[in-house]
């Protein structure tokens, strides 16, 4: 089965291709099909993911999978949340992972206690069989940790270099990719999604 991934993020594509491989699905990037990015006007991950999945399915004629993910920092009341991808632009930087990390560390510079640096990475996956699917599959994953004082590690993308996971004593970017994928917010959501697809789409 071919499924279009409603994202142009190559990091997400690589992770989800690896995670969903056991189902024998062929995951295509929407960029391969010349599908423009969807608007993301909503304030929750699930609404944005559903909007992106329906958009990609409508323009491709294929089933679609969308991931809306972000960083929720306790000290910021759960922000940047759905605005994570554009976080750096709020502070005069160009959009991009490195600038997002730079802006976050600058904004948290005065928060030195571990309890003040608590945060969670959240991933919500939504899959639709068609643009008008009345029963989308919805899966979510969450990993709690702390924002490190400085970037560490070279694996991963996004906020992985500063997302310190206490149970591992390392950031996500320091962990081997296989370990990160097994324990990440996206990994948890992908396992739920695989179970839903097996139960409702593939069985």
Summarize this entry quickly.
It is built from five helices and seven strands. With 203 residues, it is an alpha/beta fold.
Task: Lay out the secondary structure.
Blueprint: E1 2-5, H1 10-20, E2 26-29, H2 45-60, E3 64-73, H3 97-107, E4 118-128, E5 137-147, E6 163-165, E7 170-171, H4 177-183, H5 185-202
Parallel strand pairs: 1-2, 1-3
Antiparallel strand pairs: 3-4, 4-5, 5-6, 6-7
Helix pairs in contact: 1-5, 4-5
**DSSP helical segment count:** 5
Content of β-strand? 15-25%
Shape: globular
User: What do we call the CATH topology?
Assistant: Maf protein
Instruction: Compute the separation of the termini in Å.
Output: 13 Å
Top CATH class: Alpha Beta
Radius of gyration computed on alpha carbons: 17 Å
Strand order of the largest sheet: 2-1-3-4-5-6-7
Please identify the structural class as seen in this structure: alpha/beta
Uncertain runs with pLDDT below 50, 5 residues or more? Answer: none
Question: What letter string, H or E per element, gives the SSE order?
Answer: EHEHEHEEEEHH
Q: Can you count the beta strands?
A: 7
Cofactor: Mg(2+)
GO molecular function: ITP diphosphatase activity
Protein name: dITP/XTP pyrophosphatase
EC number: 3.6.1.66
């Amino acid at each position: 089965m071919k499924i279009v991934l409603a994202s142009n993020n190559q990091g997400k594509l690589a992770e989800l291709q690896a995670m969903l491989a056991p189902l024998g699905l062929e995951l295509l990037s929407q960029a391969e099909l010349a599908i423009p990015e969807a608007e993301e006007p909503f304030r929750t991950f699930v609404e944005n993911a559903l909007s992106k999945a329906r958009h990609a399915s409508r323009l491709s004629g294929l089933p679609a999978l969308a991931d809306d993910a972000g960083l929720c920092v306790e000290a910021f009341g759960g922000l940047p949340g759905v605005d994570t991808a554009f976080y750096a632009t709020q502070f005069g930087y160009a959009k991009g992972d490195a600038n997002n990390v730079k802006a976050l560390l600058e904004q948290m510079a005065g928060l030195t206690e571990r309890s003040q640096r608590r945060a969670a990475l959240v991933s919500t996956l939504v899959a639709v069989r068609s643009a008008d699917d009345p029963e989308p599959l919805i899966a979510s994953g969450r990993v709690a940790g702390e924002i490190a004082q400085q970037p560490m590690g070279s694996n991963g993308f996004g906020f992985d270099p500063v997302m310190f996971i206490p149970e591992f004593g390392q950031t996500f970017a320091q962990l081997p990719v296989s370990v990160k994928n097994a324990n990440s917010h996206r990994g948890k959501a992908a396992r739920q999604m695989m179970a839903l697809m097996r139960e409702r789409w593939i069985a």
